[in-house]
Records
---
Amino acid sequence: MNIKGIGASAGIAIGKVYKFQQAEFSIEKQNISSVEKELEKLKSAIDHSERELEIIRDKTKETIDEEHAAVFDAHIQILKDPSIIDEVEKIVKEQRVNVEYAFHEVTNNYINMFESMEDEYMKERAADIKDVKKRVISHILDVKICDPSLIDEEVIVIAHDLTPSDTAQLNKKYVLGFATNIGGRTSHSAIMACSLEIPAVVGTKTLLEEVKDGELLIVDGINGHVILNPSEDELKEYKEKAKKYEEQKNMLKKFVDKKTRTMDGYEVELGSNIGSPNDLDGVISNGAEGIGLYRTEFLYMGKDHFPTEDEQFKAYKEVLEKMGDKPVVIRTLDIGGDKELSYMEMPKELNPFLGHRAIRLCLEKVDLFKTQLRALLRASAYGNLKIMFPMIATINDFKRAKEVLIGVKEEMIKEGIKISDNIEVGIMVEIPSTAILADQFAKEVDFFSIGTNDLIQYTFAADRMNEKVSYLYQPYNPSLLRLIKMVIDAAHKEGKWAGMCGEMAGSQLAIPLLLGLGLDEFSMSATKVLESRYLISKLNKKHTHDLVSKALQMNNNEDVVKLVEEYISEVE
Ligand code: PEP
Ligand code: MG
């Protein structure tokens, strides 16, 4: 069976299905005949949970860092908390009821108690107890727990959706690929799959309901489909395709140390997008010329508290030092939309992508913003830092953000802290209002980086997470190309540079158009750097200019795609 989706991360994976689906269970009060048996179940569930949590903690330490791992130490403490265990045992003994019911009752009391507290930190404890409760009761009832870091054999993960923190915990050694029912090409789990180099297909709509654990499946992340229970011929064909894909990857290695230059000698900068210092190995091994986007919000996720100034400083410093004198664009916190923090209360919004997110939230929670800015300014002494604000919609947004930055800087200078005196401050262009007013913005900012993932969703009014409207994700539509042109032209008129860090920058079809429009910097997932450099080496800047002039006069996405496809096939 062949199921269509959206290719989110290139490559081909062939393996057994692992359904990543949280089991639902209902807890009912039941009378029991043997207290002893119930208490044995409790002991074994606690032992089992402890072993599991230790594995998760160790793997998190290995793949993420110590601080994220510490969350699971806290879970082990809750698990072994004598007062919880005593209370559960007492209920089982006195009321002669089933242990899952007793555990459910006792932990719920604690959850309610913590949730009703004023203190944010105490409130967060409720989430930890909920997690532990679910784990222990699953073991008592003997139902499968889905935890990405517990996977210890080669599989293909199939889920309804994966959160970015689930994705971050996928271990490349065992997870050969993944496919989800929902999500678009620019959902953050798709973007992370790309940096983890795990082949992925998203937006398959019903795949999770079609598959059974252990069935054979092919994920074709290049063409965006999956094949369930493939025939012998299909298996042979895809093994061959996977081999070709690997060969192409090896051929591209010779471009690692090369400059990014067109056939007629025009140079551009190819940077990489990262979500954590852990991504730097891929950046360096793929020969990126800088970091065009560091999504700092991942530093805030998968934790139980806001990262402190020191924690952030350490991460930023590591990235800046490892990149030497190469440019590193660090974006301030862009939380909201599909990125949530378990420990921060964010009221549910009808349209979270149009809501109180990113810079809007930072300008309200100024202390949070200042902590990040202090960490960034301290780290600036260790490399070539550029600071970028996300989701700027008005000149006033930018001026307010910059004022906070200047205030923090002045305080720190008074404190005698060393700060680089050469930090560019720029903005993401992700909102049409900003693209339209780019000529005015260009007088205020040091650079633009076009965030097409959001710019496309706002231009076409099509939610980037909703596969039903993914046909409106139209990077080649002349309406979007004209917006991009306005931004690049406005930057150049004021002697500033314009980059792009949305997924479009790494798309092979978009590159000739962006080159023709005069884009200065392309920032993409590290895995796309080499194929992009190779493609650019075969292009002629003058020809791409003619190409884009034609594209700008067309009236739909499909015609532009055809035009560029023909152009690329002539170049090859
Ligand atoms: C974008 O919107 O294009 C972008 C790069 O930011 P994010 O994908 O993190 O929203
Ligand atoms: Mg964005």
Note: Residues 2-12+152-250 form a domain with the Glucose Oxidase; domain 1 fold (CATH 3.50.30.10).
---
Amino acid sequence: MSLVKLDNVVMEFELGTFLSKTRIRAVDRVSIDIGRGEIYGLVGESGSGKSTLGRVSLRLYKPTKGRVIFDGIDITDLPEGKLRKLRKRMQLIPQDPFSSINPLQTIGEALIEPLLVHVDISREEAIEKAKEILEEVGLTPAEEFLTRKPHQLSGGQLQRVAIARAMLLKPDYIVADEPTSNLDASIRASIVKLILEFQRRFNQALLFISHDIALVSLIASRIGVMYLGQLVEEGPAKSIIREPLHPYTKALISAIPLSEELGVERVVLKGEIGNIANPPKGCRLHPRCPFAMDICRREEPPMIEVTPGRKVKCWLYVKR
Ligand code: SF4
């Protein structure tokens, strides 16, 4: 059974001033589910809607349409008071740790706060737990880190604090939103390893969001590919990386260094990702796709299941 289920989710935002408003559909009718203990990789360029979808799955955003189910409970319309009880079971590891931790708090305060809110525990016990988790994420001596402020830590150290804060309450579901993209290449692997260690230990459902399909294919059991707010392909990670179906997935794989060794058809897209405020009609990829046909410009392709668990949204695979 799925721990997290997103059913036909739409997320719209209103942007602009009171004189001129634009409605942007950042996520458009996306359905995914993630099982307990499963790592689901969500990939796509920036602007594809993957971070927004991650936040909807945590009910940090209330979807405009569709349902969000967590552990069998429909949390789509749950008021904040009731959601708060579930919050400790679902946590976010953000892309930018500097924005997630209050710059005026010490690291100790940032770690103790969620414990005091969600667990029946004394301040002394919370401090001990904060020390333990700092040691587990490799920030030692823990006593020293407890008293530091965020600006006294490097980006990598602060991301370790963000991971510690997310894992403190042993959540069942984690969204890791591009957790290494702001970090030096030299420390990215150790941060991913740390997240995976906790994931295994607590048997967590993990939604790992990244633009790096090569990295995601190494750690996820299933991959979903997003383009301009829509899911365009989904399937087992091994099959997506070895036999991608959608031209967009093929283009992402073609951009991996040494991708020719995978034997995947090389696809290069024209231009840049389109404008989410005014997406192309028909298939959203058609202005960039080297295989575009007349129907692609006129009609949106359906998402079809080509084999069990393997889905693609492209006219090339629709029998007509
Ligand atoms: Fe390309 Fe058409 Fe497939 Fe869209 S539906 S990805 S334009 S071939």
Note: Residues 247, 283, 285-286, 289, 291-293, 296, 301, 314-316 surround iron/sulfur cluster (CB under 6 Å).
---
Amino acid sequence: MNNLRSLTLNDDAQSLCELPVLTGTTGPNVIDVQHLYRETGLFTYDPGFNSTASCRSTITFIDGEEGVLLYRGYPIEQLAEQCNFLEVCYLILKGELPTTTQLDSFQHNITMHTMVHDQLTNFFKGFRRDAHPMAIMVGVVGALSAFYHDALDIRSKKDREMCSIRLIAKVPTIVAMCHKYSTGLPFMYPNNKLSYVENFLRMMHATPCDDYQANPVLVRALDRILILHADHEQNASTSTVRLAGSSGANPFACITAGIACLWGAAHGGANEAVLNMLEKIGDVSKIPEFINKAKDKNDPFRLMGFGHRVYKNHDPRARLMRTTCHEVLNELGLHDIKLFELALELERIALEDEYFIEKKLYPNVDFYSGIVLHALGIPTNMFTAMFAMGRTVGWIAHWDEMIADPEQKIGRPRQLYTGAMRRDVPADHRKSN
Ligand code: ACO
């Protein structure tokens, strides 16, 4: 199949059209169906895009069967071991790892944009204190376009770069503000002397009365969470960003669309759902009951943090996150805390269970990241916002790639219509109601 050069569609003995097969650098070849409708009057049908490549991309490669994840060609394992998050951001945005000078300049640029416009704080006051942080994120990140419209010409590379810097710099500040707002504490300004992650942890945990000294093991753990979440090719939220951007919408609006999509429990909401599930399980003795619920076809319950659309092998991010998780639990002496005991036992049982083995359901990155974030003192309802913080760079890189792509068109899928045929509104339709 992979050696095909083209595919001919036949109707009885007659050839309808020839579909070229395109080859990428690596990964499966794709059948180019762009002209299928024009030539045959047919559409393809692929709900959930199981077999559809929506674009060309040079950013990230995943081999779900082999458990491989590459950012710009570099294996995630090497990036997680040898680089920090901002280096990875530079790589994802620009295609190459930065030199020391380039990294210093990038880091400086990001640091100089971490503060948000003071008027933006007014937006928070419009939300209830108990609003979900993702609801606030959707509102406040969307509002950025009302503040930074000096650089919103999407055809200008310079403006696009400025938007990228602003988003990577300001999203952590907004995430921390969401947390402070929901706890009734004053917002903390960023501190330019600190690294990206230290700064974020300080904005989350310090108060004007008490400063916060970050533990280096925890800083490294959060840096790694951000690296592992930085990009994942055409996942649901990234595809949402691309689709929103395909109409020419501004980048702040597009990233907001990504945040909204990420919020769902089947996507970025999974790390929060993991913790909620662990709390519901409550005790190690209850694990078999929940495993049975997950296996029961008539029960909608799923083991949150298990399974992945693409990885049918170990998710390489989950492996790295598992190591980080154990490092953090050791550092903080938390292995014997009930919730963590529960998580580790759940992982052990599920990995040995026939159902999960046969269906290739391994713990995914969010199973462990939820546990690490909990250990870092991040409240459960903030977990998806933390994911958004890491993924922002991936969303921007894809948005930028799409805008610069000469093949770019407005995204407009078609459908298989199964509704009523044309009919007339009865003259007496109100009476018959
Ligand atoms: N618990 C129990 N059974 C599961 C689970 C699970 N977590 N995940 C999949 N299955 C079963 C399904 O019931 C299905 O069984 P069947 O073949 O007997 O019908 C089979 O495994 C395949 O599942 P699909 O839903 O078809 O797989 P898909 O690729 O569409 O879904 C998904 C992937 C959404 C991630 C799914 O595994 C899931 O819901 N997991 C829990 C939520 C989660 O952790 N999401 C985070 C994903 S990672 C991320 O976004 C960063």
Note: The longest strand covers residues 14-22.
---
Amino acid sequence: MAITLERGMLHPNVSAGVLDHWTDRLKLAKQTILAGTGRGADFLGWLDPDKLAPKETLKALGDTAKKLRDTVDILVVVGIGGSYLGAKAGIEALATPENKARVLFAGQNISASYHSELLASLKNKRFALNVISKSGTTTEPAIAYRLLRALLIEQVGEEKAKELTVVTTDPENGALRSRAKQEGLTSFTIPGNVGGRFSVLTPVGLLPMAFAGIDIEAVVKGATDQAEALRNPDNQATCLAYAACRNALYSQGWGVETLAFFEPRLASLAEWWKQLFGESEGKDKCGLLPTSLLMTTDLHSLGQYVQDGKRQLFETFLWVDDMGVELQVPQSSDDRDGLSYLAGRSLAEINKQAWRGTQLAHREGGVPIMTLRIEKFNAHALGELFYFFESTCAISGTLLGVNPFDQPAVEGYKRNMFALLGKPGFEEEGERVRSRLEKYS
Ligand code: PA5
């Protein structure tokens, strides 16, 4: 197993006995998930990554990605939430700089400045669209698709624009599916039993990653290996141990979990992680608040707070021993910067000692700490991580008593926005929303 959990720095907050207690409870939650008898049991498709992305699907995704790469310079991924965060996480973590520059994102906000800059950057460029929405009706990507479709048609004409549009959506329902059918667009499906934030190992995440040159077979293999470990009754699955630590701390009143990492390439993975846990556990007035810190960058902003502010957060370090890149501090005859003692030493080693120093300082400042450690970062490890966090989240949320697979509260802002915008069907609600707003003015 490539992901290990170090929990020595939970001491003195969490004892071995407490962890055993939580592990026993989580084993039951795991059985509930595997047996499909818990809340949200209709959304367990993610449990079997090899079934989600069998060989034929991987081939079709690889073929489509290659065709797009041969035809265009840029792929614009249009989606929001679970329909873009996983792809962005994978591409940022693993793609080469040239390939990263070939994937742009749209529809993850409604900003005029963001989208006008994007449209301007695509002017006279060869680009294609991957429009991703399970429901097919989400406002943000729908607006972006309209904008981008108009530009694409203007540049290449209606027929060619259809060839350059790939849709990833529900197998049967929704506006995108009906458009795909009507216009004969290339399409992939998000299985009905997989929710948005658990969909990274479906075409939602895999097609953009394949376009960015990532070995998606290795990603799926990593996830499949984790799935086997989870199902093996003799295996002390690391996700159970991680879930036990989080739940033990939560039960003691710690309200915030911070995922702290030392590689900027993992920043979007942390965004994906935040959505996964935030939308899955944050309901019924329960749940840890997931936050993240990019080290050592954030040590020079939030570091002071973590070290010495109100004690309410614990840190989960995501540490990678080998990112596969070597760089050394150069020799110099001029030691005015006082760095000669570091000359010839690798940045990886310096980063590691920064990590160890940070852990000790924060622990001594009263922060409970655990570390998820990965030996080597590659496509297989990425797949393992995706599955590892998904399974921890599902098991942890089940233990919490919430439905980890729905997100009813996300509708709150949408209903108000539709009412304020006068969407057909929301006319009467518009008046009510405006008068409720008045109360706060
Ligand atoms: O996790 C989820 O289900 C959500 O975050 C969705 O992914 C997000 O709201 C986008 O939905 P859709 O794919 O239907 O456009």
Note: The radius of gyration is 23 Å.
